[in-house]
Amino acid sequence: MRLNRIVVALTFALLAAFAVPIQAHPPTGIVVDHAGNIYFSDLETIWKFDLNNKLSIFRQGVSGRHVHELAIDEQDNIYGGDYSYESAKFISAIWKMSPDGKFEYLLEPTANPPAGLSIWRDREGNTYTVDQNNHTKTQTLLLRRAPDGKVTTVAGGAYGYADGKGTAARFSSVGNIGFGPEGDLFVTDGATVRRVSRDGTVVTVANHLDARTTEDKPLVFVDGGQNLTGIAVDASRNAYVADSNNRRLLKIDAAGKVSVLLRTDPPFFPNGVFVGRNGEIYVLEVGLALPSSWSGPRVRRITPAGENTILVTIGAENRNASSTSPAFQPAAPPSVKGSKLISPGTLKYGAVIIGAIVLGTCAMIWKRRKRS
User: Fold this and answer.
1) Per-residue pLDDT for 328 more than 90?
2) Phi-psi region of 58 (alpha: psi -120 to 50; beta: other; left: phi over 0)
3) 361 pLDDT band (50/70/90 cuts)?
4) pLDDT at position 364, please?
């Protein structure tokens, strides 16, 4: 009986543990092309909302393959990454879609992606990735991959926190990357935003961004977690950061002054952000209903004049009476409507670990009984 209780307790504890990472990683991907068409991810499907207020599927999702982030280049090509868990392996791929919908893989699905290859590319064709493991916390590196395949460390080293140049700098947990007007990188790192110049010099732009005020809405997760998710930078070097757990969109000006541009009411929270060509701020918001289900995202636009409009919402359950445009109700893929935050791949992975721990526990108890 005691063994059964221990096994059950371990099982529930591990299931709870596996639910947290999935809850903490809903989509952040939102981009806008030169014409003003909006593309955003619901975690699997990529949607397009055009200038005629028409919502359509730009790229059909595949169940179990997650697209967290999106990027766009000067030719309005859209870049995304597929992430899934298949055949006991984590699989990743990088793809590109032209404005007319032509699809191609830049990296075919693989369990061994090359270092430095990602959707984040500068005008010279270099791509950037963050090499880190938030479980072991041994090192955090910002890598640059040149078009010829050469990979160098731009900044970072052992896990920690320190401004400096190159390997003298330290990062803790980098959440997302955005490009500044001169090609420098802005990254979210824990509760801070930091700027990395092209020569690898790292400076802190603003810190303690998780500090709350009496005006803030209820937390998404009361036990905290990764607060800062999407980040985008305008031509004046103002950074806009989705402070997801606090349900806020923050603005950090070039001098480092922090202000709250938006607060959202539950169940929604900002998770992705993009700056349009004319200074409009586009926000991807996620609706989460605890403990484990979330509904389709919605897109908000904030103009330089302060006009705040919800443009489109995925899913009928998210209708907003104050919105100036209707809530569309397309046929939702499994990841949008009524889905759970624990993916099938995560359950497979969790089941293997749970089984191993249960067997180890049984062996330990058997040995103790044998000794006694």
Assistant:
1) no
2) alpha
3) low
4) 57
Rounded-to-integer distance, Cα 240 and Cα 193, Å: 10
- pLDDT, tens digit, 9 for 90 and up, residues 1-57: 444 444 444 444 443 344 333 334 789 999 999 999 999 999 999 999 999 999 999
Nearest to 272 by CA among 297, 251, 292, 295: 297
Check: CB of residue 276 under 8 Å from CB of residue 266: no
Q: Do residues 337 and 351 lie in contact, with contact meaning Cβ atoms separated by under 8 Å?
A: no
Question: Is the CB of residue 246 less than 8 Å from the CB of residue 217?
Answer: yes
**Residue for token pair 């970072």:** 156
- Model's pTM, two decimal places? 0.80
Q: How far apart are CA 157 and CA 44, in angstroms?
A: 33
Chain Cα centroid distance, residue 61: 17
State the Cα–Cα distance between residues 52 and 59, nearest whole angstrom: 19
Distance separating alpha carbons of residues 183 and 121, to the nearest angstrom:
10
C-alpha–C-alpha distance, residues 246 and 63, integer Å? 29
CA separation for the pair 316, 347 (Å, rounded): 28
Per-residue pLDDT tens over the stretch 283-302: 999 998 776 677 789 999 99
Question: Which of 19-28, 42-51, 235-244, 270-279 has the weakest average pLDDT?
Answer: 19-28
CB atoms within 10 A of CB 305: 7
pLDDT over threshold 60, residue 132: yes
Distances (CA, A) of 360 to 183, 332, 353, 354: 51, 42, 10, 10
Q: Which amino acid belongs to residue 174?
A: V
C-alpha distances (whole Å) from 219 to each of 18, 26, 85, 212 are 20, 16, 30, 10
